[in-house]
Specification:
Elements: E1 5-11, H1 19-26, H2 31-39, H3 43-61, E2 72-75, E3 81-84, E4 89-95, E5 100-106, E6 110-116, H4 120-130, H5 133-140, H6 144-164, E7 176-180, E8 186-190, E9 202-208, E10 211-217, E11 224-229, E12 237-238
Parallel strand pairs: 1-11
Antiparallel strand pairs: 1-5, 2-3, 4-5, 6-10, 7-8, 9-10, 11-12
């Protein structure tokens, strides 16, 4: 596993509609995960949960010495998962009904979030309670289409940052901002009251399978990104290696 490399994995819950495929995929889960899987009442939720947890184990398989079913995990006080026993491997997971994504790095915290493009209207509705004053001010100057697109990016970036910090939505969302600064792109600004060095983070967004995906990493230089897809009964297929993404802040490129 190369240093300053991010490994981005995707999986699709609908790949597990076939019962035989579902059962086969569930074999990599721990006993506790299988018990939780059995408690889901709706098939869609069961597929989403299984795709997510199988994806984490598959992604880690390609970065460490263990088989998928051998990985163990712990959580911090905010619920962020880590490899157990402690390792320099860091990962973050995000799941929605149509897409699951996992981001893995060695020696650097990471965060990821995915949201359906269709969620942008809902984000606009709750914007006053989740966006900062700086973000709301910039949003108010945009046309409707640009506003929805930008709000979607803001929300996924904020979630990815909160996950990378290991605090999730316990982190006050209005105390940090992703500010558009033409011609340099976006910049993260963090209120010192929540104790973080904004300059240590790099971030970007991309679109995949009808979703906006936000990536956050501690790497100070632009990382190398490898993107893979997990499909049942297939050798993982690579998407174009190191996609040409716009990473921010640009001054550290």
């Amino acid at each position: 596993m190369a240093s300053e490399t991010l490994y981005l994995w995707f999986a699709y819950p609908d790949d597990l509609i076939d019962e035989q495929t579902f059962v086969w995929s569930s074999q990599v889960l721990s006993q506790g995960e299988r018990e939780r899987l059995d408690r889901f009442k709706f098939d869609g939720s069961r597929r989403e949960y299984l795709a997510a947890h199988a994806l984490v184990r598959t992604a880690l398989l390609h970065c460490g010495p263990l088989t998928p079913e051998a990985w163990s995990f712990r959580t911090n006080s905010y619920g962020k998962p880590y490899v157990d026993p402690p390792s320099d491997l860091c990962f973050s997971l995000s799941r929605r009904a149509g897409l699951v994504a996992c981001l893995v790095a060695r020696g650097a915290e990471v965060g990821i979030d995915v949201e359906s493009h269709e969620a942008s209207s809902n984000i606009i509705e709750v914007a006053p309670s989740v966006l900062s004053a700086r973000e709301l001010a910039q949003l108010s100057l945009m046309t409707t289409d640009c506003k929805h697109n930008h709000a979607l990016s803001l929300w996924t970036l904020k979630e990815a940052y909160a996950k990378a910090r290991g605090m999730g939505l316990s982190l006050p969302l209005q105390e940090f901002s992703f500010v558009d600064c033409p011609p340099f792109g976006m910049r993260l600004e963090v209120n010192p009251s929540i104790g973080a060095d904004a300059e240590r983070w790099r971030f970007c967004t991309l679109d995949h399978a009808g979703h906006r995906v936000a990536l956050m990493t501690e790497f100070r230089r632009q990382p190398h990104l490898e993107v893979r897809v997990m499909r049942p009964f297939q050798v993982p297929s690579s998407l174009p290696e190191d996609p040409q993404l716009a990473w921010f802040p640009k001054e550290f490129a």
